[in-house]
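Re: zinc ion structure - here you go.
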Amino acid sequence: MLVNQVTVSVIALLSLKLLAERFLNFTNIHHVLLRRNEIPYGFETFVDLPTYQKSIDYTLAKTNFSSLCAVWSFVFDSFVIFSGLMPCLVSASAKFFGTQTIGQAVSFFLINFLFSLFGIPFSWWRQFRLEDFFGFNRSTQTIFWTDKAKEYLLCFIFGFPIFYVIAWFFQSFPRSWWVEAWAILLIFQVTMIVIYPVFILPLFNKLTPLPDGELKARLLQLTQLTQFPISEIFTMDGSKRSAHSNAFFIGLGKFRHIVLYDTLIAQMNTEEVAAVLAHEIGHYKHQHIRTNLIVEGVGSFIGFGILYYLSSSSWFLESFGFQTEYPLVPLILIFSIVISGVTFWIDPFFNCLSRRHEYQADRFAADALGQTEPLISSLRKLHKENLSNLAPHPVFSAFHYSHPTLFERETAIRNSTPSHGRSEA
Ligand SMILES: [Zn+2]
């Protein structure tokens, strides 16, 4: 048993996170259940009581499931930290694959692969039990397991060379490796944003250019009006896995892509789809992808700085039972556990920034359309069809929600005064 000041402090940090999660979940469930028989004011016109109550049941089921995942994750991490399992795995792996850079990279991937296997039953249950119960699952066992295999393969193809290069820097430049490692990761992130819609997404979904017709004509008219030149708008067969509907904007510069789920097109009329597109264009016009990249870049720079400090403090790894002259693998493995206890408290700030982006994109959409009704009606349909929680507890949504609640968005949209035809944003 590895019980010392450091391991106990880490467990205390993770316990605090677990307690806060339990408290937030409890507060939210209590809040939602109190309102189970009463549709929130203003929403009676687009949602009936049975659908509203189903959305509450869905919220409860998701909350219970996330609580179960959180408890499991806490138990698992505590076991890994106290039992000394990690040092055993690292030294066994080092004996087998060697301590050269390539051997370290193999060890890192094998141990991560092993640990990630424990998460698979949870994602299986979420898809084929929870989502299925509420009528959202459209996936099959074949799709699920093929997806998993592809995800692991991609992790290996991209992750292995990156870890290898970082390990090489770690050994060759003991003082500055963390800055180089940070730069490599940042370059990788930018590259992924560019290549994701062209090379990665098509491995999982079929992207089809929107067929000619009224919808395409209206959407292309909107892209011209908003000075967002794009040759194609794609639809994605999201219905292959789920009945949930969505749309997203991804890519940088010439490689930008707007993707609409087929489920979304099936649920909305032309003007509502145009509103969703205008919202996505709003994200582009306000350069939200770039802002997120900068914020994440600053965050990861700090993260690497801490990693560097810990790498030069032998007490840290020794407290977790490691006695190795090749500390990079154990350092990253332990750091990835510890950091979740810290990022949990930082996430609300990122969510706050994300909600700000959503307001800006909504505002842009309202201006571009010259009216607010299609935007509001598209948001209502999205919330209704996806059984979103219409009345979460304010503290819960402020902490966890990356998007404002429907009520908050509607209020903000109504308070904005759309100009006619196009936006100057
Ligand atoms: Zn958005």
